[in-house]
Amino acid sequence: MSGDLTILFAPESAYGPTNNCVGIGDVLRRRGHRVVFAAEASWKGRLAPLGFEEDLVDLAPPPEKPQEAGQFWKDFVRDTAPEFQKPTIEQLGTWVRPVWEELITGARYCEPQLKSIVDRVRPDGSSRTTSSASPR
Q1: CA 72, 109, 49 angle in degrees (round to 5)?
Q2: How many C-beta atoms lie closer than 10 Å to residue 57's C-beta?
Q3: What number of helices (H) and strands (E) belong to the chain?
Q4: Is 54 helix (H, G, I), strand (E, B) or coil?
Q5: Cα angle at 127 between 34 and 51, to 5 degrees?
């Protein structure tokens, strides 16, 4: 496999999903591919030292003060931990639904940013093109 692909990762802003992508991305990077992360803004400066390009997005309006990577979800889990004492069926409305609502809200908010990143990065396999995109 020649090292000429551009791979774009857009993991959920949490350590588990991001670390999974880092592991896969590291293998791809070592094989000579360009690996770009469309990560949530709190990951700024954490992926570039690992050899990846960062093209960051906001999942909501930026906070007044910078947050640690994945801080929103750390706080969310801390604040909702009591829900895990309930039977799963009872968590559907008090934990599962709010989590999915947050994920959907974040996805909707950052969609224009992600489209712009895809246009800029031009990952292999992407069918998105713009009139200003230059041929490879």
Answers
A1: 55
A2: 21
A3: 4, 3
A4: strand
A5: 15
Exposure string over 71-80, b if 16+ CB within 10 A, otherwise e: ebbeebeeee
Dihedrals phi, psi of 119, to nearest 5 degrees: -65, -40
Query: Helix, strand, coil % (nearest 5) of the chain?
Result: 50, 10, 40
At 41-98, the pLDDT tens digits run 889 999 999 999 999 999 888 778 877 877 877 887 888 889 989 999 999 998 899 8
Rounded to whole angstroms, how far apart are CA atoms 69 and 91? 26
- Position 126 scores a pLDDT of 64
Distance CA 35, CA 37 (A): 7
Q: What does the DSSP 8-state code read for residue 57?
A: B
Question: What's the whole-number mean pLDDT along residues 102-128?
Answer: 89
The pLDDT of residue 5 is above 80? yes
Q: Which residues of 15-47 are buried (b: 16+ CB within 10 A; e: fewer)?
A: eeebeebbeebeebbeeebbbbbbbbbbbeebb
